[in-house]
Amino acid sequence: MTSIASETHVIAELRGRVGCITLNRPKALNALSLDMIRSLTQTLQAWKDDDSVLAVAIRGVNKEGPFGSFCAGGDIRFFHQAALAGDEALEAFFTEEYALNHLIHTYPKPYIALMDGIVMGGGMGISQGASLRIITERSKLAMPETNIGLFPDVGGGYFLSRCAGRLGEYLALTGRVLVGREAITAGLADGFIDSSRLPGLWNSLERTPFENGASVERWCASHLNTVAPPAPWPSKEVDRIFGLPDVPQIMTALAATDSDWARETAATLRQRSPLMLHVVLEQIRRARVMGLAEDLRMERDMVHRCFHLCPGADSETVEGIRALAVDKDHAPRWNPARIEDVIPAQVAAFFESPWAADAHPLRHLG
């Protein structure tokens, strides 16, 4: 086994003819730093043009060892510190992260994501573009960004809007966690394997004489159960309510629906950033008719606005992170405070690009 990356938080090694990546930041649930994003990008670029590498597999570790946690997302404490300090590394983080997401979605070789444990936010960004998305009974998938005054980025507009019916709007607005096989039902995973079998599958990548990349992917797929269980959410109600034109109408419909699901969903939405609920609904609906690169450019515009429309501590995102992860008082002071108080001009501002097309930081994405 030869290592091609010295960054301790990203271990890259060739096992047989499979490039194997281990996210190795267990204390932070493998949350992505800028250095990790750069290491992943450098590794994938090198392997893309290396004929000795047939396919790529990626996993995470937890405090007990391999697997158990995939990636909890971007390093939100870094977002908070960088935004308050005016650190330009924050801009670089999102530009390079979204470019990495695009690289994974368009990778010319099989890219196999072993999504055991927590897979949220940025973790979805480095797994949803995989040619094979593998989950276990421990998998917990979500795009929970509205909880911190952000939006489901890293291509979230693209992959959530491709979920069946209006499931994408529902998952984006609520941040609902998909447990285990529920991710297959949602169309956000391809197959299931019991977590106890992951070490054997990983080790077999080195021992098995593969002919080509497709045979690596077929080998991994042969270990999976691809049966999707019935949806644990009321699909007809999701489509009826989350297909409504705007957030106030969604809230009115939930209030008029006599079910535990409707009451729980309404209570969840009332805790989220009112402004970002409006922004996210618009994001998903715009993204539904966009290609991947176009969506990522839109999300790059949006995330710039998240930190700069109201700079520093006045940013909805900075306030959301403060409440959830820094002070941990779970009492964000959202502005506006109510869903009904958000006006269209506040939403529209997030979709105005601060860059001319030929100066956009993601203009090179195909």
TrEMBL record:
One of its GO terms (molecular function) is enoyl-CoA hydratase activity. Its EC number is 4.2.1.17. Coiled coil: none annotated. Residues 18-351 form the Enoyl-CoA hydratase/isomerase domain. It comes from the Bacteria. Pfam families: ECH_2 (PF16113). It is an enzyme of class 4 (lyase). Keywords: Hydrolase, Lyase. NCBIfam families: PRK05617.1. PANTHER family: 3-HYDROXYISOBUTYRYL-COA HYDROLASE, 3-HYDROXYISOBUTYRYL-COA HYDROLASE-RELATED. This is Enoyl-CoA hydratase. It comes from Hydrogenophaga laconesensis.
